[in-house]
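REQUEST ID: PR-0412
SUBMITTED BY: lab tech R.K.
PRIORITY: routine
TASK: structure prediction, single protein chain
INPUT:
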Amino acid sequence: MKTHYISWWNLENLFDTYDSKSRPEWLAKELSRELKGWTNEVLEKKLENLSSVIKQINSNKGPDILGICEVESEIVIWKLINKLNIPNRNYGVVHFDTNDKRGIDIAFIYDKHKYTFDGKMFHYEVLKRSSTRDIFQAGFITRNENRLILIGNHWPSRSGSQYKSEPYRMMAGETLSYWLEKIMEIHGKKTPVIVMGDFNDEPFNRSLREYALSSNNRKKVVYGKNPYLYNLMWKLYGEKKATYVFNSNLQIIDQFLVTKGLLLSGSKFSCDESSVRIEIFQGLVKGRYNTPIRFGRPSKKSSFNLNGFSDHLPISFIINEIGN
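STATUS: complete
OUTPUT:
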């Protein structure tokens, strides 16, 4: 049996340097004030801090697959990968350059020793007057020639208040559910799909329950006719843990959800529910609530901290694959 260590992390505004030649003119203008002081030295420090955490994941072996968001470009992702230097890892990138108004995207970093990208990816931008946040799907084939579909999510933020912004996250949830229905039509109802991301809502919010059709009832997902998702994060509520802390309010807005293809007996993959975790390492958090220590940016001095990392914590879990 093979194991797959899957992780997700919102990297909090991982931009390239202010004078990056790869940045489109419209984005350079949009970010001119925000990236004031974002020098090569600052970026290098951010990359070093992030990589020091990623290297500790999976007992210092690094994740097999890492979904990330709030990254500007594939160029800056490769800068991060080059900092990792994890033995026996050969990481590749799947990324789609979006029209997000701040230029932040979703991507997957994956070990090319264990997976082959099947060349198929799909992308959807949630519109809030202009493009903002996205859903990104990519397919991988394991060395046992089994298909695994990943869907990364970065849903619209709660800026302007949680409930005024909620319809945009509902729209994202509805779109996600539609995608899952299409995936099942094309590849079969037992297709294993892992949905991960920063949803800016918690598992009990309407966008996830009513629109993405996620549930904490395993039997409902296994036997239901709809393309239900099993949300793996519910068990963490009893442990008083959070992936994001806002005004001392602990929130689990970074989540893993899976389709019945990882729950059915006889499937090629099985989900290890006991392995679901929020990754907390020394120096990554502070205070009684394990608040993530954010890196911020120089243009906003009140939150800028060269010893920080991100305003979110990484999450991980393990799936098992039948075969050698």
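NOTES: The longest strand covers residues 115-128.
REVIEWED BY: pending
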